[in-house]
Amino acid sequence: MYTRFLQMLKRPENIFLFFCLLGGLLLVFINPPFQGFDETEHFYKIYGFSQGTLNYKKITSYTDGTLLFEKPKTFTAQIVPLSIVQLAAQSKLLNPYIGPDRIIHAPQKISIKNVQELAKIPLNKQYKTIAIHMIPSYTVFSYLPHTFAMIIMNSFDVPPVFMIFILRLCSLFLYTGLMYIAIKITPVKKNIFLFFAIAPLSLYIASIINTDHLVAGVAFILTAYTLKLKNDYVSDRAKRISIKELLIFFALIFFLCVCKFAYFPMILLYFAIPKNCFESNKKRVFTFILIFLACSLWITGFVAYTIQIFSGTFSYYCHNALRAIVSIFQHPTGFICCLLKTTAVDFIEYIQRAVSDFGVSDTNVNPLIIWGYFALLIANAVFGDKNAKDTEYNLDLQNKIIFAVIIVLVYILALTADYITFTLDGSGLIAGFKGRYLLPVLPLFLFLFDNSRLKPLKINLYTVTMVYSLIFMLCFIFTLINRYYLI
Q: What is the SS3 assignment for the chain?
C-alpha cells in the first residue's frame, strides 16, 4: 500500500491535490473572518443572490456608517442580518481604516478565544439591516456553489462565522477541482501548472470568499486544453479538430469572459492550435470570428448594463465611468503615458504580489523569498521538467509571440478597467490593480522561457522547487499568523 501511495504521488495532479488540501485547509481556518480580499463585499453579494437579489439595493443617507457627509449621497447596499454586519464591523478592527486625511485606528490583533467568541454570535436573521458597500460587478455564475450553500445555511440559521468558513471551503473545493483538471489534462508543462497552482497566493485566494480562484482555475484549464489540442496534432498530424473540441474551447473562453472580461485576450490561444488541425483556413478564421463576436457581444452588453445600474450611486474612489471611457479616446496619448507611468512605478510590486499577498496587502513575506521562487520557476521553464513529452513539444516562436501578446493585452485591459473604475491616486497613477490579476496568465509567461532542447541540469530542479514551495508556504502561514494573532 505504501508503494502504491508513492506511485500516486509521482503524478503532478496528485501532488497538487495533497498540497492544495493541506495548505488550503490551514488557510481557511487560520485566516480570521472577513480578512480576505474584499471578502465582506463578496459575502454580501452571495447573501443577496441567495435571497433572489440579482443586483443591489439603494439607500440615500448623510453617512455610510463610518464617515459623515455634508450632503446626502446614494449608496449601493444590501439587506442582510444585523449579526453579519456586526461581525464585519468587528473584523474591520484588524485592519487600518484610512480616512481622507488620517488613520482612524491602528490595526489590531485577535486571539483564538476572540474567534471562539465570534463563533457564538447567532444569525438571528429576523433582525435585518441595510449594509452599505460597493458590490462587485459579478453575475451569479461566479458564485453558484456559494449561493447554494448560503441558501441551505440560511435555512438552518447557521451562525455567521461558520457561514464564512463553509463558503471558504466552497472556494477551496472548487479551486481544487478546477486546477486538478487543468494539471491532469495538459500533456506537457505539468510542473509549470503545478508550481503556480500551489503558490502561496494561489492557495490563499482558494481559501477565501472571492471569485479569483474561479477565474484562475478556468484560465488554467483553457491554457491546458489548448496545449492538449496542440499535442494531439503533434502526436497525429492527420488529426482534425472536432466540433465538440471547438465547443469546449468556446465554452471555456466564454465562461472566463462571464467571470472577468479582462481575460478576453486569452481568446488568442485559439491561434496556438496548429492551423493544419482545421479542414481549411477559411473554416479556421470563420470559427474564430464566431467565438470572438459571441464573447464581444457579452462583454459589451455587460459593461453597458453595469454602467447603467451604477449610475447615480456614490463611490469612495470611482469617477464617472462613461466619462473616463470617452477621455481615453479623446486623449489617447495621455492615457498611454498614464499606463506607462503606472507600470514603471508599480510593476515590480505587481509581480511580487502575483504569488504572495494577503489581507489588505499591508504585510507580506520577505521579497527575497518571492524572487527565489520565481528564479526556480524560470529555471524549470528553461531546462524542462520530468515529462518526457516536453522534449518533443518545444514551443515555437509563433506560440511565444501569441503568449506574449495575450499577457500584454490582459495587463493593459485590466489596468484600463481599473482606470475606468477607480480615480487616479495622488501621484497620477492608476489605482486598484492587484498582482493577483496576473495569476491566470503566469503559466504563459513561463512558457516564454521554454527551451526543452537544452539538457537538464544535474540537480533535480523539480524536487528543489517542491521543497522550496513547502518552505515558502510555511513562511507565508507564519507571517499570516504573526500579522493577525496575539502570540
A: CHHHHHHHHCCHHHHHHHHHHHHHHHHHHHCCCCCCCCHHHHHHHHHHHHCCCCCCEEEEEEECCCCEEEEEEEEEEEEEEHHHHHHHHHHHCCCCEECCCCEEECCCCECHHHHHHHHCCCCCCCCEEEEECCCCCCCHHHHHHHHHHHHHHHHCCCCHHHHHHHHHHHHHHHHHHHHHHHHHHCCCCHHHHHHHHCCHHHHHHHCCCCCHHHHHHHHHHHHHHHHHHHHHHHHCCCCCCCHHHHHHHHHHHHHHHHHCHHHHHHHHHHHHCCHHHCCCHHHHHHHHHHHHHHHHHHHHHHHHHHHHHHCCCCCCCCCCHHHHHHHHHHCHHHHHHHHHHHHHHHHHHHHHCCCCCCCCCCCCCCHHHHHHHHHHHHHHHHCCCCCHHHHHCCCCHHHHHHHHHHHHHHHHHHHHHHHHHCCECCCCCECCCCHHHHHHHHHHHHHCCCCCCCCCCCCCHHHHHHHHHHHHHHHHHHHHHHHHECC
* Overall pTM surpassing 0.70 (yes/no): yes
Confidence (pLDDT) at 72: 85
Per-residue pLDDT at 436: 92
Tell me the pLDDT tens digit for each residue of 13-57: 999 999 999 999 999 999 999 988 889 889 998 998 998 877 677
- Regarding beta strands 103-105 and 97-98, do their DSSP bridges make them parallel or antiparallel, or are they unpaired? antiparallel
The residue extents of the domains of the chain are: 2-39+171-484
State the chain's mean pLDDT as an integer: 85
